[in-house]
Amino acid sequence: MAPRGSDPLMRALLGPGVPELGCEGCFAQLDLWAELELARGEGDRFVPGLRAHLEGCPACAEEAASLLALLAPERS
Fold it and tell me: Is 43 part of a structural domain of the chain?
């Protein structure tokens, strides 16, 4: 029998295991998270729960991907 954490269905049922933001909180913190991710890779440290939300919300994940793509060239 596989460990609980390795079963995708069990992970989906149990949730991310970290606090998760809602869409409103995600949009409020997305700029800060993206800046931190691109600058130091520490978005998750300073905005806990945002990545967990992105993993479960296609609309917010698309917004995050667009923002990262927009900001990334500025970092080069």
Answer: yes
Q: Would the pLDDT of 1 be above 50?
A: no
Helix (H, G, I), strand (E, B) or coil at 30: helix
Taking residue 22's Cβ as centre, other Cβ atoms within 10 Å add up to: 12
- Tens of pLDDT, residue by residue over 16-59, are 566 678 999 999 999 999 999 999 899 999 999 899 899 889 99
H helix or E strand, kind and range, residue 50: helix 50-56
For residue 62, give its domain range. 24-75
Q: How many domains does the chain have?
A: 1
Q: Is residue 39 part of a domain?
A: yes
pTM of the model: 0.70
Say if CB 16 and CB 55 are below 8 A apart: yes
Q: Answer left, alpha or beta for residue 48, where phi above 0 means left and psi between -120 and 50 means alpha.
A: beta
